[in-house]
Write a structure and sequence with these properties.
By secondary structure, the chain is an all-alpha fold. The protein has 2 domains: about 70 residues; about 100 residues, no CATH class. Helix content is about 75%, strand content about 0%. It contains 9 helices and no strands. It starts with a helix and ends with a helix.
Length: about 170
């Protein structure tokens, strides 16, 4: 039952990305965060041991693919090219992860794409005077995102911890 609920939620609700890209993406990220809790609350035994990581990555790829469809239709060439390049980098890294099973691979292919996607959609709404219409501006955006995402990927896939537990270790 838990597996059916998680699959239904993570397949159906991300379709909102195609109609409402920002809201749909934020909802998909929220579902991604809570799916493990749904398994734990209902019935973890439905999922064979060790398969959660694979299932989670496949479901992530699904909602990232929906985001890439939105990016493909962006009118601004600079946003579209940068977004698709970041998407392909993430897909390539995930493919290497599936082929090798090494979680540390994800550190070298962080999901900068999704944060970039959210920024391109949200920043003009939050800061109407902000202009991200030059290669330098898009490059600066990607450079600003990268250190935070690398730290996040390090915590999850190299240190194999949760962000909360990692931060607690410093206090």
């Amino acid at each position: 039952m838990a597996l059916a609920i998680v699959l239904a939620l993570r397949f159906i609700f991300p379709l909102a990305i195609l109609r409402w890209p920002l809201a749909g993406t934020l909802f998909a990220i929220t579902l991604d965060f809570f799916d493990l809790h749904i398994f734990e609350a209902l019935d973890w035994s439905e999922l064979p041991a060790g398969d959660y990581q694979v299932l989670d990555k496949l479901l992530d790829l699904y909602h990232l693919a929906l985001e890439s469809i939105v990016v493909w239709h962006w009118k601004e060439d600079i946003f579209r090219r940068a977004g698709l390049a970041l998407y392909l980098w993430k897909i390539g890294g995930t493919f290497v992860f599936f082929m090798t099973g090494l979680r540390a691979v994800m550190f070298f292919a962080p999901n900068i794409f999704e944060i970039y996607f959210i920024c391109v959609l949200a920043l003009p709404k939050l800061f109407p005077r902000l202009r991200l219409n030059s290669p330098k501006a898009v490059g600066a955006l990607v450079l600003a995102i990268t250190p935070f995402k690398l730290l996040h990927e390090y915590i999850l896939h190299v240190a194999e911890s949760s962000t909360t537990e990692f931060v607690k270790g410093f206090f």
